[in-house]
Amino acid sequence: xILLQANQIARxxxxxxxxENIQLEVSSQARIGLVGRNGAGKSTLLKIIAGIEEPDKGTxxxxxxxxxxxxxxxxxxxxxKTVWEEMLEAFSDVRQIEKRMHELEIQISQxxxxxxxxxxxxxxxxxxxxxxxxRNGYGYENEMRAVLHGFxxxxxxxxxxxxxxxxxQKTRLALAKKLLQSxxxxxxxxxxxxxxxxxxxxxxxxxxxxxxxxxxxSHDRYFLDKIVNEIYEISRSKMQHFKGNYSRYLELKExxxxxxxxxxxxxxxxISKLEDFVAKNIVRASTTKRAQSRRKQLEKMERIDRPExxxxxxxxxxxxxKSSGNIVFQLENGAIGYNDHVVSEPINLDIKRQExxxxxxxxxxGKSTLLKxxxxxIPLIKGEERFGTNVTIGYYDQGQEELNHNKTILAELWxxxxxxxxxxxxxxxxxxxxxxxxxxxxxxxxxGGEKARVSLAKLAMEQKTF
Length: 466
Description:
By secondary structure, this protein is of the alpha/beta class.
């Protein structure tokens, strides 16, 4: 059964077309991945499909009574309600049925069997109980516990107000609530952000068994490989549909490009042959009619456009202004946390020049807290730290909070490096796929991925050693 169709959808920003002629179809139990480079319009299209934004052209049609659930990128729950209360809201309809059943139970116990309303009340109770069973009424609290456990929320979190949680925990809680709501079509924008490996594995298993349809934007190709069985790609303002998971999509894309080049080159050879015949024979009386025939053939030929090939990828390096000493950073017997509440200890680090270190661990263990403690944003609770000679720190904030949303891309870099020639600023931005008029876009207009590239471009300009 078709749940939703997008027909000839288009979105413009001023004179620029973000995408147009978008056709997309979602059937029940579909597993769809939406892919494309940063700024292609993936998140915008999801918002249009979810009914949050209106398209400039085209229509979205849905089956009657279909339920949609949409979770935006990095959305987090933030209220005075407890974790348990927030999750209970996902079952508000079921709980209303439960409440009405209790009322009827009391009414039945107080009504004699010979009363004229007794059978009517009993029949109403039977109908409600059947619906209650079908909607997992006797098991929804166990389902809540299972999903919360999957997202690393044990019973110690149940009575905590959501506003007291970390940013990553709020994001995971929002995703947990959306899963528990179990809409017919679940639309997820980058759901794997802020998930550790254990939670990601749990989410993959849960979504593989999800009873409804899924429409997912993700840059995690391994996640898409395990979840989706069809891909819609937005590229150069157009959309293409491919059957299979992400790896199969890449194979089909390569085959398609090879086929396009073969057809193009074959036609170019034919054109060259015809043009050569016309040039040599058009002025000769004996062959002019054949030359004119070839010319008409050329004029009527439907030309194949030159294949555009793959879109450009970012290509950059991080240079340093001045080399540091061999010792970069040392921490002995460190403890990190907030307001004397220790999150992790003991922490011992000995980082040397040119080492590449990955910091891994479960959600809430203190990875971001440690980084912020190293850069001095959050004080260490205890421990002795030491930076080496000529060590300068560059920090990438995953929330891009350091970006000024009122500035253009060019101004965001140039204002911090006013003595650098504009051509050099543009060269750096070009390596991060911002060229031409792109650099005049406002930061506020950018997608999450584009903002990430601006932050990385700023980091590259700083030429830090650590």
